[in-house]
Design a protein that fits this description.
The chain is an alpha/beta fold. The chain has 13 helices and 18 strands. The two termini are about 30 Å apart.
Length: about 500
């Protein structure tokens, strides 16, 4: 019985935690955290959470419109409406959990502006909003007696059973099989499929790969957001993000000549949506034959900059730049995934009883390009949708649990070095901001070879192997959908 649960949640970012919080108190929940609870992309979110909440000069209709415009009107209007209308509920909920949003001198919640928004509707905690929200969600979920949390526990195998799902979990050096009637995948993004990303090291697309292998539809995985203003330090694969909010507060984008250039690409200048700005930087780099670009907010009051962006200020200062006095080097970098595991408005996938929420899911709210600060909101809204739907269906499922078998290679081989590095290089060269159409066929062929090798060779089932297989699967789907003009793909 100790290995059987009503729900297994894979991932402990905002979506996973909030999903657990919103499940009924009599629901037995297993929460699998790949590493420590605080390591996830949610904790890295700087700008804030968008929403219409006691906003006299804003409206749900305007938030919807801005979201649709940023997404090139390729969004799902139904889920966009859900996102915007539920924002007030989720913002109130996390305020009740103790989230400390910044306030104005008279005590009102402060709202800032970011690219693509027509109103000041971004609630924030300095420039570390994600970390603040995650901290309060962790505190809340730890008080729930119905939730079992396993840290440093990685799902290395997943199978659909007659009664739900079995998860093969690597924990403390050995594998244990856990069963559930429902599963919620909240495994985050795919950043590590690229050489340079703003994502944390655990963002290897595991949930997407497992969903694909179990027959779920994967949609629009080629829709990848490259953030235009990552700190341009290519010494590490994790690039520090310079928040959208810096441009929202008046920062200028400069080319290698330290000249503003956005007027040549979009009338919204620095406040154009992220995909527009990233494309502009790449086109400008081709024009100037240089990848040296800068973000400059030094014309603003130094005390304002230090107080508004304390974390960013300290981070770039550590790298030798004082943003109160000089421009800081930036360049586009992989940041976010708009596509993912296809779900309906209840966050249920095309596989019954399997749900997905957060960045690994495809709700359709983002269209072709995510509007700034809609990601934390999406994680909360749609993980709650999943929890509410699971609660409705719990009484109709079997009380028994079937356990799947996960064969172990008899003579396991060690994973050869260099496969993950090769995958990243192929993706960086073939599909970065503007796809390299001539190289895509060759890139896809090599990715297919790597993935087939990982699927057929008897490699030891460990973290390195599972992450390599996930990255190969994600890269395969991205390049295949891009090359063949598909929007969705399924293994079955």
């Amino acid at each position: 019985m100790e290995n059987n649960y009503d729900v297994i949640i894979v991932g402990c970012g905002a979506a996973g935690l909030y999903g657990a919080i919103n499940l009924p108190p009599d629901c037995r929940v297993l929460l699998l955290c790949k590493q420590e609870l605080t390591l996830c992309n949610s904790a890295l979110a700087q700008g804030g959470i968008a929403g219409v909440y006691h906003s006299p000069n804003d409206s749900i209709a305007l938030h919807e419109k801005d979201t649709m415009i940023a997404g090139g009107y390729r969004n799902n209007p139904e889920t966009v409406h859900l996102l915007a209308t539920h924002a007030a509920h989720e913002i109130q909920a996390i305020l009740d959990f103790g989230v400390d949003f910044d306030r104005t001198p008279d005590g009102q919640l402060h709202r800032t502006l970011e690219g693509g928004h027509s109103r000041h509707r971004i609630f924030h905690h300095k420039d570390a909003t994600g970390a603040e929200i995650l901290d309060k969600l962790i505190r809340k979920v730890k008080t729930l007696p119905n939730v079992t949390i396993l840290e440093h526990a990685m799902m290395v195998g997943m199978k659909k059973t007659a009664t739900g799902f079995s998860a093969n979990v690597l924990y403390h050096g050995s594998c244990t099989v856990y069963n559930s009637h429902f599963m919620l995948l909240a495994t985050g993004g795919i950043g590590r499929v690229y050489q340079y990303t703003t994502n944390s090291k655990i963002a290897t697309g595991d949930g997407i790969a497992f969903a694909y292998e179990n027959g779920a539809e994967i949609r629009n995985l080629h829709l990848i957001q490259f953030h235009p203003t990552a700190f341009n330090d290519h010494h590490t694969r994790e690039c520090f993000l310079i928040s959208e909010a810096v441009r929202g507060e008046g920062a200028y984008l400069l080319n290698c000549h330290k000249e503003r250039f956005m007027d040549r690409y979009d009338e919204r200048l620095e406040l154009a949506p992220r995909d527009v700005v990233s494309h502009a930087i790449i086109l400008e780099s081709r024009e100037t034959k240089s990848d040296h670009f800068y973000l400059d907010i030094s014309h603003k009051d130094p005390d304002f900059i230090r107080n508004r962006f304390p974390m960013i200020y300290e981070k770039v200062l550590e790298q030798g730049y004082d943003m109160t006095k000089e421009p800081i080097p930036i360049f586009p970098c992989q940041h976010y995934l708009m596509g993912g595991i296809q779900v309906d408005s209840n966050s249920e996938t095309t596989v019954p009883q399997l749900y997905a929420a957060g960045e690994c899911s495809h709700t359709g709210v983002h269209g072709n390009n995510r509007l700034a600060s809609n990601s934390l909101l999406e994680a909360l809204v749609f993980s709650r949708q999943a929890a509410l739907h699971i609660a409705k269906k719990m009484s109709s499922v079997s009380e028994t649990y079937e356990t799947a078998e996960f064969p172990v290679p008899k003579q396991p081989k060690k994973l050869p070095k260099g496969l993950r590095t090769e995958i990243r290089a192929i993706m960086q060269e073939n599909y970065f901001v503007i796809p390299h159409e001539e190289k895509l066929p060759e890139g896809l062929k090599r990715i297919e070879e790597i993935r087939n090798q990982l699927l057929t060779e008897p490699y030891a089932i460990d973290v390195d192997y599972v992450e390599a297989k996930s990255l190969a699967t994600v890269a395969y789907i991205i390049l295949k959908t891009c090359l063949q003009g598909q929007t969705s793909i399924s293994a079955l």
